[in-house]
């Protein structure tokens, strides 16, 4: 069986098993969606949002692209954010990066001439790398890429929090920054949308020296 046919067969099996295990599930799914979370993640096939958070269909509103970037002038990402905040009224926006990200690694190298669309897409990430060059140049290549992946999550969180779509939300969603470790499957909180005692956004301690996959308390709580 070719790969495409095997996916269709797997879908049929999943639909049958789900209907047997949870009668009425698809009837409910067909009624509409009410996700409480917008997930902005990387397109990497190893980081599927629903799988790594053990979420069911309908629980996450998902937008994925190379290197989990949010560019305010990009209608693709901005339209997703706008719909999630103004129509779905999500409570949380989570930016999730991951260690070992190919888009992040590419931003530390000369622009790929044979991938012009990718080069344009990651241009803001290349600029971010340039702003942190002094720090990144002092690290081994793999660690520099992983550190930039962390910095990138912080940068996307900043851009999202500054977005008028988020600021003017009614209510305004909380924006969180997480990162996923491929080596152990754990998510780590880099910055939380929940305010600390002083009313400020609660950023996790600097992770530059921490092993990948070090877990943090305070994963997303129920709103």
From TrEMBL:
<dbReference type="GO" id="GO:0004089">
    <property type="term" value="F:carbonate dehydratase activity"/>
</dbReference>
<keyword id="KW-0479">Metal-binding</keyword>
<protein>
    <recommendedName>
        <fullName>Carbonic anhydrase</fullName>
        <ecNumber>4.2.1.1</ecNumber>
    </recommendedName>
</protein>
<feature type="binding site">
    <location>
        <position position="101"/>
    </location>
    <ligand>
        <name>Zn(2+)</name>
    </ligand>
</feature>
<dbReference type="InterPro" id="IPR015892">
    <property type="entry name" value="Carbonic_anhydrase_CS"/>
</dbReference>
<dbReference type="InterPro" id="IPR001765">
    <property type="entry name" value="Carbonic_anhydrase"/>
</dbReference>
<dbReference type="Pfam" id="PF00484">
    <property type="entry name" value="Pro_CA"/>
</dbReference>
<feature type="binding site">
    <location>
        <position position="44"/>
    </location>
    <ligand>
        <name>Zn(2+)</name>
    </ligand>
</feature>
<keyword id="KW-0862">Zinc</keyword>
<feature type="binding site">
    <location>
        <position position="98"/>
    </location>
    <ligand>
        <name>Zn(2+)</name>
    </ligand>
</feature>
<dbReference type="InterPro" id="IPR036874">
    <property type="entry name" value="Carbonic_anhydrase_sf"/>
</dbReference>
<feature type="region of interest" description="Disordered">
    <location>
        <begin position="201"/>
        <end position="223"/>
    </location>
</feature>
<dbReference type="GO" id="GO:0015976">
    <property type="term" value="P:carbon utilization"/>
</dbReference>
<keyword id="KW-0456">Lyase</keyword>
<dbReference type="GO" id="GO:0008270">
    <property type="term" value="F:zinc ion binding"/>
</dbReference>
<comment type="similarity">
    <text>Belongs to the beta-class carbonic anhydrase family.</text>
</comment>
<comment type="function">
    <text>Reversible hydration of carbon dioxide.</text>
</comment>
<feature type="binding site">
    <location>
        <position position="42"/>
    </location>
    <ligand>
        <name>Zn(2+)</name>
    </ligand>
</feature>
<dbReference type="GO" id="GO:0071244">
    <property type="term" value="P:cellular response to carbon dioxide"/>
</dbReference>
<dbReference type="GO" id="GO:0034599">
    <property type="term" value="P:cellular response to oxidative stress"/>
</dbReference>
């Amino acid at each position: 069986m070719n790969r495409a046919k095997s996916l269709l067969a797997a879908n049929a099996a999943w639909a049958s098993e789900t209907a047997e295990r949870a009668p009425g599930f698809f009837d409910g799914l067909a009624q509409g969606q009410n996700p409480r979370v917008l997930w902005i993640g990387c397109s990497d096939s190893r980081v599927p949002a629903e799988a790594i958070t053990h979420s069911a269909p309908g629980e996450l509103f998902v937008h994925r692209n190379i290197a989990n970037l949010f560019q305010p002038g990009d209608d693709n990402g901005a339209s997703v954010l706008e719909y999630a905040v103004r129509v779905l009224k999500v409570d949380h926006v989570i930016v999730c990066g991951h260690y070992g990200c190919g888009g992040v690694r590419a931003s530390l190298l000369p622009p790929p001439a044979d991938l012009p669309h990718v080069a344009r897409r990651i241009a803001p990430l290349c600029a971010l790398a340039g702003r942190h060059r002094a720090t990144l140049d002092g690290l081994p290549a793999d660690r520099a890429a992983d550190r930039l992946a962390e910095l990138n999550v912080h940068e996307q969180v900043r851009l999202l929090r500054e977005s008028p779509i988020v600021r003017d939300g009614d209510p305004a969603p909380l924006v969180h920054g997480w990162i996923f470790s491929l080596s152990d499957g754990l998510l780590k909180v880099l910055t939380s949308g929940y305010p600390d005692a002083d009313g400020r956004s609660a950023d996790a301690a600097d992770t530059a020296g921490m092993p990948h996959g070090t877990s943090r308390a305070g994963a997303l709580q129920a709103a």
